[in-house]
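Memo to structure team: turn this sequence into C-alpha cells by end of day. - J.P.
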Amino acid sequence: MITSWEKIVIMKTKLLFIILMFQIAFLSCKKSDEKILDAQIIGFDITKCSCCWGWIIKFGNDTIKTDSLPGNFQMDGDFPIKVKLELGAIVKRCSDLKRYDYYKIKSIEKITPAAGGI
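Reply from structure team:
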C-alpha cells in the first residue's frame, strides 16, 4: 500500500516532469527577429541634417529610412525600385521628430518582373 507521503512524492515528481517538458518545448520554439519584406525604395534624401539623409523605403503602410544599403546592391533605373529585404533593428529613432526611423538593412535583393509580365 502507498502511503500519503509516497503519493506526495509521486505527484511532485510528475509535476516537475510536466514543467520540465513545457520548458523544453518553449525554449525550442525560438522566435525569429528577422523580418523579410517586399518593399520599394522610393527615393534618396540628400539633405544633410539629423534624420534627413538616406534611402527612403516603403513597405505596406510603413515608411522607413536607412543610411546605407548592403554593398552587393546595385542601383540602376528610376524610383520606385521593388526589392525584397531583411530588416534589422532600429539604429536611429527619428519618429519623435515627426520623421522616419532609421533601420539596419541586413540584406536586399532587387525584384525583377517575370518574363512576359506587366
